[in-house]
Amino acid sequence: MWSAIKSAFSGQGDRRAAPRVQAMGKVVIDSSTFALENWSTSGILISGHDGRLIKGQKFKMTVEVQEDAKLIVFQAEAVVVRIAGNKLAAQFYRIDKHKKQQILEYFARNTGSPK
Prior knowledge:
Layout: H1 2-10, E1 21-22, E2 24-29, E3 32-39, E4 43-47, E5 58-67, E6 70-84, E7 87-95, H2 100-111
Antiparallel strand pairs: 1-3, 2-3, 2-5, 3-4, 4-7, 5-6, 6-7
């Protein structure tokens, strides 16, 4: 109980706005490919980051997520929100509008959240 209270006041708790889902996939930034650790409707976590992006930096990417026999591919723009070791977390601020419904349907199936 005390740890929950402490994290509420210190800001160290989970600040994610949307539930994350472990996923098989990749993210391509410029000409470099990174492993997708997890993602949500609001952002991604990748591994293999080599330091070329810094916190607060905006960038463009292509995200590919494998779901059973389907492949979801979309273009997005994001901002780096956290870097820890070789992992980078980024928050989407622009997603291909034609893919938004497909992404929402993916999360409805994989998290039980409504479309």
